[in-house]
Amino acid sequence: MPFSYSSHRKFLNSTAKVLPFTPISSKSSSFFGESLMFGESRPRFGLQKITHLPNLRLKAAVKWRKELPFDNVIQRDKKLKLVLKIRKILVNQPDRIMSLRQLGKFRKDLGLTRRRRFIALLKRFPAVFEIVEEGVYSLRFRMTPEAERIYLEELRVRNEMEETSVTKLRKLLMMSLNKRILLAKVAHLKTDFGLPTEFKDTICQRYPQYFKLVSTDRGPALELTHWDPDLAVSAAEIAEEENRIRERDERNLIIDRAPKFRRVKLPKGLNLSKGENARISRFRDMPYISPYSDFSHLKSGSPEKEKHASAVVHEILSLTLEKRTLVDHLTHFREEFRFSQQLRECSSGIQICSTYR
C-alpha cells in the first residue's frame, strides 16, 4: 500500500509519529522498531533471584487518521495519472491518433488488470479523448481540440521551466552525501519535480558547468560539478526569515503585545496527550540542521540525524510541483541521505502520510 507525503502543516498523520529519543533496545519490532527488553528483575522473597526475563514482544496498533480532503485529492490524482499514461502513448503515434486495438497492447503498461472495454474507459473522459468511427469494426481515438491545445501549452511551459528544473537537480545533488545520485533514482522524482520526460538526454547533457553523467557499477549517475552557496538555503530557512521580519514589523506597530507561544497545530478532532505534545515540542525546539550541511558525522538513529532527515524531506517536498510525493519514492534515497528504516516516523508534524489503494 503506497503512501504520499505532503508538506502542508495543517495535517498530522498519526498521534504516534514522534521520534523516539531513548530507544528501549536494539532489536526490531512491529511498532517501535525495537523489542522491549527487561534487565534483571528484583528478587522475590523466598524465591531464587531471576537474572533475566525472556524477550517480550508487545504488539500495538498505530492509529492512522485519514484527512478526507487530502485523500480525495489522491483519488482524483489516480484518474489523472491514467489519463496522462494514455495520452503519453497517444502522442507517440503518427498524427497523434491510434486504434483501440493498438491501445489494447498497452493494457499492462496502463496498470489495467481487469478485462474492461477500452471504449467504455475512454468515454469516461469525453473532454480529453474523442472516438472516431471508421467502419463498423474500426474504432480509433484522438485528443479533443481542447486537450490538444492544453498539451501544446504544457510543452511550451516545460521548455520555459528548464532553468527551474536544472536548479532543482542541483539542489537535490547538493543535499546528497557524496553529491552523486543514480539516474534511476532521480527518475522516481521526475514527474513530481516537473522534469522533462527525457531529462537524461536533455538537461543532464546541456549543463556540464553544474553536473555531469558518470558511469558506476550500478548504472549511470548524475554528479555535481559546482557547489553554489547561494542555492544552499532551504525553503524552511527562507520562511523562517520572512516570519522573523513580519513579526519584527508587527512589534513596531503594536505596543504591549502578549508574547507568542509556539503551539502544535492539529487537525480538528486529533488530540495528543501531554507527553506526545512534549516530545513533538522538544523535537521542534532542537536547533535547525540545514539539509545542505555536512551530515557524515551524524550518528544514525540519533535525534540530530532525524532532525536533519526531516529537514531533507521538507526541502525535497518544497521542490515538487504539488508539495507532495510518494513515500516509496523517498525510500529510494536512503543511501544518499542516510534515511533511517523508519522514514515514515520522522515527520513530526512537518509532513503527513495519506494511504490509498
UniProtKB/TrEMBL annotation:
Residues of the PORR domain:
66-346
GO molecular function terms listed in the Swiss-Prot or TrEMBL record: RNA binding
The protein depicted here goes by the name PORR domain-containing protein
Which organism's genome codes for this protein?
A: Vanilla planifolia (Vanilla)
